[in-house]
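Fold this: Pentalenene synthase
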Amino acid sequence: MSATHEEITLAAQDGIPVVDLRELIDANLYMPFPFQRNPHASEAAAGVDEWLSTWGLTDDPAVAAMISRTRPAELAACNSPTMDPGLLQIMADQIAYQFIFDDRAEDVGRHTPGRLLPMLCESIAILRDGQPPTTPLGAALADLHRQVRERCTPAQAARWAWNSREYVHGLLYEAVAQTDAVPVGSGLCRSIRSLIAGVEPFYPLCEAAQPCELTPKEIHHPVMRRLSRLSADAAVWIPDLFSAVKEQRAGGVINLALAYQRSHRCTLPVAVTLATWHINSTIREFEELYGELRPELTPSGVGYVEGMAGWIRGCYYWSRTVPRYADAMAAPSVP
């Protein structure tokens, strides 16, 4: 199907006209997981504000404003509606930290990539070697690491640290892509997006919320590994749809919808629709594989996969209303 024909046919679903990108996404995205919200969301939001203030991360008014627009505790509440208040607070704090860290790394990496190295090396030293922090961001990460070790089993904490290190390393790939004169293709964009998604570090917290630690057979099962990849990709690609306008205006590169726009040389509404179809196939594969694996899982294994599904659901419902992505409502769904 040509991009021109898509522009004519994809702006509406079942003949119902849509006005902005958010409505276009709603009309086309497959979302089998219903909205849920943790009842402790407001307490988690207050805890995030206090925790960020403790480590001086919101001393910068721009950072404080970003957190206000991003609502990390709301994302945690939508992702993990049944999680206990203690774990929910750790998750909300970590989400807030990662948004601050990611925004700063993206800004530094775009303008002066070399200055990104000390920032990333400090994080790796904390996560891998237990080295003391030297910056406020590092101090916040060290505190998160401490909280995870206190709440999780040693194996869960080790998985948390490993996944977090992979996320940190991925930011180098993003910096290289941002400074390259030739924009990356959609396949390479997806690979980098997987590395910097920052979703899989939260899965050990989903595991810690279960009655028992998962068995090695469950956690390392090939289908379980595939479910982890599918859920993390779908969870981060959904916000890409809603943030496409914001990223386009900021000159962003690693965004699924913008990658489709570059590859197909089409308008943003068409690119968003094509990206949505890709996400739909990912979610359907997740559903199918989960259905096949579920009979083999313990109750804790089922709860763990439900936590993965929660991230897909939560990222969608959070993205629809968060002020961070309000530009999606201002962008028309047709050129």
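Confidence is low (pLDDT under 50) at residues 1-16. Residues 222-250 form the longest helix (29 residues).
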